[in-house]
């Protein structure tokens, strides 16, 4: 019986292979419009028809509000918004590109945009939709494909340094502004009585590339020279050394730890503005550990390396789908969305930081203690490398960062190895 | 996340134990060791469930707290309240139930019809047909995802209930399961029915189907769980909030917004709400389920 089953299974497998071959061939011949060949469209004078938008989770409401304002001026047009989970944006775009049944406008995270561009899913942005000089350069870089811009930067976000202001004051120290001061403070906090760790960093399994890339930029390096990946450089080695140092000195936890910012056992942290609200909530609800008050939370821009204090930039980009039959009206909507007034509305409604430089001067932003730190950090940011293969490269960085953090490899050896992997992977365009 | 977990309880519930009659049940060392091993396994299986259930009643701050707390310090219903009042939970629930019911009904009907034909009816090309049907079981779903989506798109069914239902109406696994069971039905029984003047359809409806209760229950559970937990297909086909099912809604409202922390409390509460109906269905049909697996397995 068993043998018969095996024989049948093999027969079935053979049939399956035969059935699959034409499908695979079909997928290849049915190539989507190439990312470089399409001509940029034009912007409508008056919007008409339905504009369908896929918004990343949490952005639907503000897009609906803005959409209503837009259609009030353009009664011929209507806007429908569907929210999509962040993690599925790539898959949704893939299927939509394959079948040509996408929406008119799609939203992508700044680190996802390059992948969607590479699928050929997005139409190139007409020149008059936005002037790149008016926007944060790192945000513009995240929408730039191999040969053109394929999306508009809608909002941006970045990370900065959180420090336990109360504990730092107890030590008679101040918020760090340079790498040396950060190392000194981290060491002092870890060594203090009752102290445990200093600066908490993304562990090797937590996508360390997100912090190593800013460190690299702070050291004055770049991940590419435009033609190829450049990881085997003194700057990258320096960045890895800096990263590894905190683990080697035992100031950053290498494994799952019960040390948190609020219980004071990990008093330095690099994270985003939303954590301010989280900590405030802890204080307000009385859930915070003893001694943790709203005065405990200090925030400053990242400390500088040899070159600058660049931080990570993220955010949301909006692109027009190549298969959309209402592209001109969509461009008009996006053009309108990037105007100063709508960028401010975006901040009021959703708290998202404008990608437009002048909109960042908005009073509520300047007056907010948190947003003003964000604003101070924003000009000094480095984009997630905008290449389709980046997630693969980032994974390699994580693998080698782990060996470096565990002391199994020197930073130089890791840099050489990452370079070799990256050369093999390429840019992915 | 929850796809395989509903299957876990029966392995630990020992449902067949009372059937087996042991004269003496004096604990031997081997038996004690077995119980210890099973208990450890049970704890390992149930611990995440306990964490989820208790977490559903915690505030976000408490879930994030280190060291962790097991029992909610200040139990709150906010997470559940958000699901019912802030989000359109009823809508997602109705969608999920509708899809599950339709796919169970159609799968039971069509799979048993095809299974019957492949088991007991003689026609040219039958063996080839069996092989072709079974071979589709060897193709991972993710491979056919995009071709299937293109197909549905060309039928203009994207964003409709039809697009969500159609691919789940019949499946090779169900056909296989039904056929294997039906092979066991003695031909003499069918011949007797034929002599009495019953037509093929009457035989199928009145004799075969009642005999197939066990595999039908098994198939119903599998299909229900597959449909209930299905995520990727409903997500890419629905493309409208009004068609979203529970798992899609769960991913939507609890996925980290950008890079911000996920709403763990909401996630836990949503998972509890999704799992409870599965548990109910499972407990209700457990007896048939275990029988069905046992009977098709023994040959």
Structure description:
The complex is a heterodimer of chains A (429) and B (299). By secondary structure, chain A is α/β, with parallel strands linked by helices. Chain A folds into 2 domains: 49-158 and 313-383, D-Maltodextrin-Binding Protein, domain 2 (3-Layer(aba) Sandwich); 165-311 and 387-425, D-Maltodextrin-Binding Protein, domain 2 (3-Layer(aba) Sandwich). In chain A, 44% of the residues lie in helices and 14% in strands. In chain A, the strands form 2 sheets. In chain A, strands 1, 2, 3, 4, 9, 10 and 11 form a 7-stranded mixed beta sheet that branches. A 4-stranded mixed beta sheet of chain A has the order 6-7-5-8. The longest helix of chain A has 28 residues, at 2-29. The radius of gyration of chain A is 24 Å and the shape is globular. Chain B has 299 residues and is an all-alpha fold. Chain B has one domain: MetI-like fold (Orthogonal Bundle). Helix content of chain B is 69%, strand content 0%. Chain B is built from 15 helices and no strands. Chain B has helices spanning 8-13, 29-55, 60-64, 78-86, 89-120, 126-135, 141-154, 161-165, 172-182, 187-195, 200-211, 213-229, 232-238, 246-254, 264-297. Chain B is globular and about 70 Å long. The interface between A and B is large, with 52 and 44 residues.
For this structure, the CATH topology of the largest domain in chain A is: D-Maltodextrin-Binding Protein, domain 2
- Overall mean pLDDT of chain A: 86
Instruction: Tally the structural domains of chain B.
Output: 1
| Residues in helix, % of chain B | 55-70%
CATH architecture of chain B: Orthogonal Bundle
CATH topology of chain B: MetI-like fold
Order of helices and strands of chain A: HEHEHEHHEEHHEHHEHEEHHEHHEHH
Secondary-structure blueprint of this entry?
The complex is a heterodimer of chains A (429) and B (299).
Chain A: H1 2-29, E1 49-56, H2 60-73, E2 77-84, H3 89-99, E3 105-109, H4 113-118, H5 137-142, E4 152-158, E5 160-164, H6 165-170, H7 179-191, E6 199-200, H8 209-218, H9 234-248, E7 268-271, H10 274-284, E8 297-300, E9 311-320, H11 327-337, H12 340-350, E10 353-354, H13 363-367, H14 369-377, E11 381-383, H15 390-405, H16 411-425
Helix pairs in contact in A: 8-9, 9-16, 15-16
Chain B: H1 8-13, H2 29-55, H3 60-64, H4 78-86, H5 89-120, H6 126-135, H7 141-154, H8 161-165, H9 172-182, H10 187-195, H11 200-211, H12 213-229, H13 232-238, H14 246-254, H15 264-297
């Amino acid at each position: 019986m068993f043998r018969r089953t095996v024989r049948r299974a093999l027969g079935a497998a053979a049939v399956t292979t035969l059935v699959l071959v034409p499908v695979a061939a079909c997928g290849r011949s049915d190539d989507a419009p190439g990312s470089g060949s399409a001509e940029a469209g034009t912007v409508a004078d008056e919007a008409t028809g339905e504009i369908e938008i896929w918004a990343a989770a949490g952005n639907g409401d503000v897009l609906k509000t803005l959409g209503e304002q837009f259609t009030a001026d353009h009664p011929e047009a209507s806007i429908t918004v569907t929210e999509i989970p962040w993690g599925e944006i790539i898959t949704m775009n893939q299927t939509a590109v394959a079948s040509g049944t996408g929406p008119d406008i799609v939203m992508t995270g700044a680190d996802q945009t390059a992948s969607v561009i590479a699928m050929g899913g997005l139409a190139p942005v007409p020149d008059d939709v936005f002037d790149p000089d008016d926007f944060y350069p790192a945000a513009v870089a995240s929408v730039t494909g191999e040969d053109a811009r394929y999306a508009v930067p809608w909002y941006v976000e970045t990370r900065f340094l959180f420090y336990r202001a109360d504990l730092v004051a107890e030590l008679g120290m101040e918020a760090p502004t340079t790498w040396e001061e950060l190392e000194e403070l981290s060491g002092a906090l870890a060594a203090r009585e009752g102290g445990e760790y200093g600066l908490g960093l993304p562990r090797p399994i937590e996508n360390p590339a997100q912090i190593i890339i800013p460190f690299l930029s702070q050291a004055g390096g770049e991940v590419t020279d435009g033609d190829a990946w450049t990881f085997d450089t003194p700057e990258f080695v320096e960045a890895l050394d800096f990263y590894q140092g905190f683990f080697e000195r035992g100031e950053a936890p290498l494994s799952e730890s019960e040390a948190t910012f609020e219980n004071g056992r990990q008093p330095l942290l690099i994270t985003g503005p939303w954590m301010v609200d989280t900590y405030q909530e802890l204080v307000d609800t009385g859930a915070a550990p003893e001694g943790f008050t709203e005065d405990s939370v200090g925030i400053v821009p990242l400390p500088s390396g040899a070159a600058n204090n660049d931080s990570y930039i993220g955010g949301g980009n909006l692109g027009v789908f190549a298969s959309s039959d209402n592209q001109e009206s969509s461009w008009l909507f996006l053009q309108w969305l990037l105007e100063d007034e709508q960028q401010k509305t975006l901040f009021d409604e959703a708290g998202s930081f404008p990608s437009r430089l002048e909109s960042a001067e908005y009073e509520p932003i300047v007056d907010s203690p948190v947003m003003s730190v964000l604003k101070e950090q924003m000009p000094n940011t480095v984009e997630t490398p905008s290449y389709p293969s980046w997630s693969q490269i980032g994974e390699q960085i994580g693998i080698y960062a782990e060996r470096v953090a565990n002391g199994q490899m020197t930073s130089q050896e890791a840099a050489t190895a990452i370079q070799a992997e990256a050369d093999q992977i390429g840019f992915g365009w | 996340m929850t796809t395989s977990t509903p299957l876990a309880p029966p392995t630990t519930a020992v449902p067949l134990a009372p059937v087996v009659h042991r004269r003496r049940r004096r604990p031997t060392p081997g038996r004690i060791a077995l119980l210890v091993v099973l208990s450890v396994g049970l704890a390992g299986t149930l611990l995440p469930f306990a964490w989820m259930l208790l977490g559903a009643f915690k505030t976000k701050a408490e879930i994030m707290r280190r060291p962790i707390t097991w029992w909610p310090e200040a139990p709150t219903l906010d997470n559940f309240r958000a699901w019912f009042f802030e989000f359109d939970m009823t809508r997602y629930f109705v969608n999920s139930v509708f899809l599950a019911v339709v796919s169970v009904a159609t799968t039971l009907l069509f799979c048993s019809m095809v299974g019957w034909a492949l088991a007991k009816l003689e026609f040219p090309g039958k063996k080839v047909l069996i092989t072709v049907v079974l071979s589709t079981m060897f193709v991972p779903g993710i491979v056919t995802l995009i071709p299937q989506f293109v197909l549905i798109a060309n039928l203009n069914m994207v964003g409709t209930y039809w697009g969500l239902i159609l691919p789940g109406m019949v499946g090779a696994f169900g056909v296989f399961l039904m056929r294997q069971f039906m092979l066991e039905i003695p031909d003499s029984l069918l011949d007797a029915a034929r002599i009495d003047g019953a037509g093929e359809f009457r035989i199928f409806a009145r004799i075969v189907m009642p005999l197939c209760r066990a595999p039908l229950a098994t198939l119903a559970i599998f299909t229900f769980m597959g449909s209930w937990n299905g995520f990727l297909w409903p997500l890419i086909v629905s493309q409208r909030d009004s068609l979203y099912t529970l798992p899609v809604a769960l991913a939507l409202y609890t996925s980290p917004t950008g890079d911000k922390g996920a709403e763990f409390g909401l996630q836990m509460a949503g998972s509890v709400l999704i799992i409870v109906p599965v548990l109910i269905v499972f407990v209700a049909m457990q007896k048939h389920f275990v029988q069905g697996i046992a009977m098709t397995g023994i040959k």
